[in-house]
Specification:
heterodimer; A: 255 residues; alpha+beta; Ubiquitin-like (UB roll); Fumarate Reductase Iron-sulfur Protein, Chain B, domain 2; 2 domains; five-stranded mixed sheet; B: 599 residues; FAD/NAD(P)-binding domain; Flavocytochrome C3, Chain A, domain 1; Methane Monooxygenase Hydroxylase, Chain G, domain 1; 3 domains; five-stranded parallel sheet; 24 strands
């Protein structure tokens, strides 16, 4: 490291086999202008406390492993720099998820919610022998922003509604479903809306908008949720009309 | 210990593992597939690939050209039948990805766009801006959710293989969240565990790219092939090693020394091409080994820029203009700004060569099967023989699709063969793995794995870097032997915890990393020639020597001793070895070949 300086971090520690509750422990780190919080955690693991557990992988803000709360704000540790915290900082596990150990949280519900939204192309019968679908840059642009989600979970840590109701499918999962709804190659929108258009779907969102603020990839989940609400409302109206029409038809049959 | 029964176990859930699991499920929908990974699939290192994935697409391109670019790019150490299969399958796989929803960048008419890449004669690299690996990985992960027969075992660390009568019979993994071992029985196993870039200190790789998949197979007696060939990517950020994509040169970026001179013209890649008019196989579109080697010479000549994080060259993309940079290269702009404080719209990016990719790996046949029946390998952990001595950029994303698919499909055919493994024998094997794991947890000593990791990384850079010599390689070999001894004295600090114990997992990763590093260093010192990414400075080894070394190296594990290095033949189908040439010389060679073919 060039031009090393020292700084104090308070890190939340918790070992379920030893501690009755999480607690904060102070650690001194060495840093320079390039040091990220992930570098700082790795420095501690290498040199000070090998039993500190945290997740990491790419260290370049694309894999979504290292989400933590820094001074109470959801952040990717690899993309947050110590130089911006000259007076030290607290590091905690992501809010709103159960803590497993130290900075490691349980993401299994989040993964289930992603799966529930069927984030894959539905109803397109083309096969490789038919060649690629045509998709213009304008069609790509409709969903492109919403395909940027790295599944880091920061938006769930930011979402007050998810904090109150862990059954809420949440910003990232709904954004991903919406990304496929907007894709010109997909025909699964109605299928997904059945999951989205529910109490634990889009209607749990009260549009606080903090999810988009903390999103490290600017995937804008708040916008996706608002668009999904509009789609869900329209879908509801359409299904009422269809239902009414069906009834009329079946009544017609009887006479 | 919990025992789970599957038909196929896929280890690793990056691009190759996901593609294999999907292929197995499509081939035989009745099969149960376990997809085991130490991380959630989207954390896999495929996510960090930026530039693109190769497949012939344009009318004026051909499979023959992709074939000859790959074989000459690999300095003729490729299995040519494998490369033929590869180039034929690439277009199919890329279209398949499109139909699974991959957001490929498009042309105005809605067709898929392609871009230039190093060592490729014609633009044939499919891309999704400069986040191609990210989009491919997420598309594959999301598509895998369609298949209920794929059972993910996320955050399960691969500890060992179960082998019975020479046949793969499953694996043992550690459930990281519970701290408990799991026996996963399966009729076939696919290893898709990625590379080993982290045995080098300064590298582009994610912290998870530690090589234990290779290490486990190696300890089971499978050869590691062509391990001396480690790719240095020419453009990593100084300090962090973060990758700056080759696509920045594909789009027209140039490399400068401290005098602002495009130095590649002095290293067999010239003549200089006009700014903004990149020419295939010239200058900045040379192959990675040559471009990194040119950096080394300029650095030795004192013509690079000094920074607190070492000597760098300058990657200049300013002339592409703001609009093109934002459209085609938004991620590297973000990375440069975040990690270097430099906006490439206004200033050149400081870069230097960085360990990036293991061309070699677990030796397989053309069907991705190893010497253990029913054990397959695909992606960076494998050596199916397609990259030879130097991989071309954008051939590895294509590889993980083409050979992930093949491995998964072949494993589905193979897993039904009656293995006749006895349950008690597998239990006994799994029991052994558990006792060794528990003993390791109790290991005491004054050494630290972090120190061993750092010393290993430095030794690999010193001895097995861009240029190598007998003396330096021998020093590295001695150092690795010393570290092998010291690692048994690492004290495990986190010896009571079972939940998410990364102290013990780091130790296991580094222990396999040391084995893999030894395979690299010993294969390197015994290859007394220069070829592709293996360049030697010592007398008598500076040229390619087809007479003695047109062959694969095979490293075999030797417990407690240096690996045994053996050799295997190269399969040549249609392109006999010739001089590898780029720039003007390459172009005139192409002309002559064309005349010969026509006349």
């Amino acid at each position: 490291m060039a031009d090393e300086k020292k700084l104090l971090l308070k890190i939340q520690r918790y070992n379920p086999e030893r501690d009755s509750a999480p607690y904060f422990a102070p650690y001194e780190i060495l840093w320079d202008d390039q040091t990220s919080f992930l570098d700082a955690l790795q420095y501690l693991k290498d040199n000070v406390c090998p039993d500190l557990s945290f997740r990491s992988s790419c260290r370049m803000a694309i894999c979504g492993s290292c989400g933590v709360m820094i001074d109470g704000v959801p952040k990717l540790a690899c993309k947050t720099f110590v130089r911006n915290y000259p007076h030290g900082a607290t590091v905690e596990p992501l809010a709103n998820f159960p803590v497993e150990r130290d900075l490691v949280v349980d993401l299994s519900h989040f993964l289930e919610y992603i799966e529930a939204l069927k984030p894959y192309v539905i109803g397109n019968t083309r096969s490789p022998a038919d060649g690629p679908n045509t998709q213009t840059p304008a069609q790509l642009a409709r969903y492109h922003k919403f395909s940027m989600c790295i599944n880091c979970g920061l938006c769930y840590a930011a979402c007050p509604q998810f904090g109150l109701n862990p059954a809420f499918l949440g910003p990232a999962a709904i954004t991903l479903g919406h990304r496929y709804n907007l894709d010109s190659r997909d025909y699964g929108k109605n299928e997904r809306l059945r999951t989205m258009n529910t109490e634990n779907g889009v209607w749990s969102c009260t549009f606080v908008g903090y999810c988009s603020e903390v999103c490290p990839k600017h995937a804008d989940p708040a916008a996706a949720l608002q668009q999904c609400k509009a789609d869900s409302a329209l879908n509801f109206v359409a299904s009422v009309l269809k239902c009414k029409k069906n009834k009329e038809v079946s009544h017609g049959d009887k006479t | 210990m919990q025992t789970l029964n599957f038909d196929i176990a896929v280890v690793g859930a990056g691009g190759a593992g996901l593609r294999a699991a999907i292929a197995a499920s499509e081939t035989r929908p009745d099969l149960k597939v376990a997809l085991v990974s130490k991380v959630y699939p989207m954390r896999s290192h495929t996510v960090a690939a930026e530039g693109g994935s190769a497949a012939v697409q344009q009318e004026h391109d051909s499979l023959e050209l992709h074939f000859s670019d790959t074989v000459s790019g690999g300095d003729w150490l490729c299995e040519q039948d494998v490369v033929e299969y590869f180039v034929r399958r690439c277009p199919h796989e890329m279209v398949q990805m499109e139909q699974w929803g991959c957001p490929w960048s498009r042309k105005p008419d809605g067709g898929v766009a392609v871009r230039n890449f190093g060592g490729m004669k014609v633009p044939r690299t499919w891309f999704a801006a400069d986040k191609t690996g990210f989009h491919m990985l997420h598309t594959l992960f999301q598509t895998s959710l369609k298949f209920p027969q794929i059972h993910r075992l996320d955050e399960h660390f691969f500890l060992d293989l179960l082998v019975e009568d020479g046949r793969a019979a499953g694996i043992v993994a550690l459930n990281m969240m519970e701290g408990e071992l799991v026996q996963v029985r399966a009729g076939a196993v696919v290893l898709a565990t990625g590379g080993a870039g982290r045995v080098y200190r300064y590298n582009t790789n994610a912290s998870i790219v530690t090589g234990e998949g290779m290490g486990v197979a190696y300890r089971k007696g499978v050869a590691l092939r062509d391990m001396e060939f480690v790719q240095y990517h020419p453009t990593g950020l100084p300090g962090s090693g973060i990758l700056i994509t080759e696509a920045s040169r594909g789009e027209g970026g140039v490399l400068l020394n401290k005098d602002g001179y495009r130095y590649l013209q002095d290293y067999g890649l010239g003549p200089e091409t006009p700014l903004g008019q990149p020419k295939p196989k010239h200058m900045e579109l040379g192959p990675r080994d040559k471009v990194s080697q040119a950096f080394w010479h300029e650095w030795r000549a004192g013509r690079m820029v000094s920074t607190p994080y070492g000597e760098v060259s300058l990657l200049d993309i300013r002339h592409l203009g703001r609009e093109k940079i934002l459209e085609r290269l938004p991620f590297i702009r973000e990375l440069s700004m975040q990690y270097m404080g430099i906006d490439p719209i206004d200033d050149p990016i400081p870069v230097r060569p960085t360990a990036h990719y293991t061309m070699g790996g677990i030796a397989t046949d053309a069907n991705c099967e190893t010497s253990i029946r029913g054990l397959y390998a695909a992606g960076e952990c494998s050596s199916v023989g397609m990259h030879g001595a130097n991989r071309l950029g954008s051939n590895s994303l294509a590889e993980l699709l083409v050979f992930g698919e093949a491995a998964g499909r072949n494993a589905a055919e193979r897993c039904g063969e009656s293995g006749g493994s006895s349950s008690s024998s597998l239990d006994a094997q799994a029991g052994d793995v558990e006792s060794r794991f528990k003993a390791l947890l109790r290991q005491k000593g004054k050494e630290k794995w972090s120190v061993i990791r750092d010393e290993m990384g430095l030794a690999m850079e010193d001895g097995c870097g861009i240029y190598r010599s007998e003396e330096l390689m021998q020093k590295t070999i001695d150092k690795l032997a010393e570290l092998q001894d010291r690692i048994s004295h690492v004290g495990v600090a986190d010896n009571s915890a079972s939940v998410f114990n990364t102290d013990i997992l780091n130790l296991i990763e580094i222990s396999h990393g040391l084995d893999v590093a030894e395979a690299m260093a010993h294969s390197a010192i015994q290859r007394r020639e220069s070829r592709g990414a293996h360049q030697r400075l010592d007398e008598g080894c500076r040229e390619r020597d087809d007479e003695n070394f047109l062959k694969h190296s095979l490293a075999y594990y030797n417990k407690g001793a240096a690996p045994r290095i053996d050799y295997g033949p190269i399969k040549i189908t249609k392109l006999p070895p010739a001089k590898r040439a780029y720039g003007a010389e390459g172009a005139s060679q192409d002309e002559k070949n064309k005349e010969k073919a026509n006349g």
